[in-house]
């Protein structure tokens, strides 16, 4: 167990008591060095359960919009972007307030429509 911190400085929140954050303006360089640093940390005997939360295998999809057809249907590229963000982004649509906390309500699409580009 660990005490909850009221104020965090730097990095992002994690479930660990200590964290070391690497940052780089060059993503390729970061992807090259992060595993090296991780392996070196694992070799330090005083450190236990060293791991990484780096996620390098995210899914991507290239979308090509037929602007002429979209315009005939009354859709702008901003409308299409907004609809995709509503379905797959983190669109906050409301905030619920409790006695001690507040909870953000996030819009998402049904799970059966999250399976792939054809869905």
Task: Produce a short descriptive summary.
The protein is an alpha+beta fold and 119 residues long. 29% of the residues lie in helices and 11% in strands. The longest helix has 16 residues, at 27-42.
Major sheet, described briefly? 2 strands, antiparallel
Termini separation: 43 Å
- Name the structural class: alpha+beta
Helix coverage percent of residues? 25-40%
Order of the strands making up the biggest sheet: 1-2
What is the count of DSSP helices, taking H or I runs of 4+ residues? 3
**What percent strand?**
5-15%
Principal-axis shape equals flat
Contiguous runs where pLDDT drops below 50 for at least 5 residues = none
Average pLDDT rating = 84
User: Count of DSSP E strands?
Assistant: 2
User: How much is the radius of gyration in Å?
Assistant: 21 Å
Query: What series of H and E elements makes up the topology?
Result: HHHEE
Assembly form of the protein: single chain
Report on this structure:
The protein is flat. The protein has three helices and two strands; from the N terminus they run αααββ. It has helices at 27-42, 67-72, 77-88; strands at residues 91-97, 102-107. Strands 1-2 form a two-stranded antiparallel sheet. It is of the alpha+beta class and 119 residues long.
Keywords:
29% helix; single chain; 2 strands; 3 helices; alpha+beta; 119 residues
Write the layout of secondary structure elements.
Blueprint: H1 27-42, H2 67-72, H3 77-88, E1 91-97, E2 102-107
Antiparallel strand pairs: 1-2
